[in-house]
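Fill in residues.
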């Protein structure tokens, strides 16, 4: 299984189960984008945080676009 360079988008990552999952995936080598409504305002973590409200389609699309933008940038460099 290829992990290096893979992206994991984890919802509800500012606390609880989502935060623990995001930490584990980051430790395993994934580029992790944790998400929650508060995004980076929820505090500093060992993975990137993006704002995402799962009840709003446009919010989900924006977070997914941000994740793929990183993938495109890292593939070009
Ligand atoms: N803990 C358990 O033992 C357990 C067992 C079975 C099922 N569950 C279920 O699993 C889920 C997570 O549990 P948890 O204990 O990890 O809860 P938690 O610590 O309260 O975490 C919930 C996470 O979801 C985010 N969130 C809430 N509403 C959101 C929305 N509309 N869009 C995006 N993110 C949102 C919160 O961040 P923001 O407030 O920043 O958005 C937070 O990061 C819950 O549905 C819970 O009922 C938990």
């Amino acid at each position: 299984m290829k992990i290096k360079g893979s992206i994991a988008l984890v919802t509800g990552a500012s606390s609880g189960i989502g935060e623990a999952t995001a930490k584990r995936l980051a430790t395993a080598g994934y580029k992790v984008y944790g998400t929650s409504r508060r995004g980076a305002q929820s505090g500093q973590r060992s993975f990137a945080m993006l704002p995402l409200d799962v009840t709003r389609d446009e919010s989900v699309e924006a977070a997914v676009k941000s994740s793929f933008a990183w993938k495109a940038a890292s593939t070009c460099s």
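The helical segments are 16-27, 57-76.
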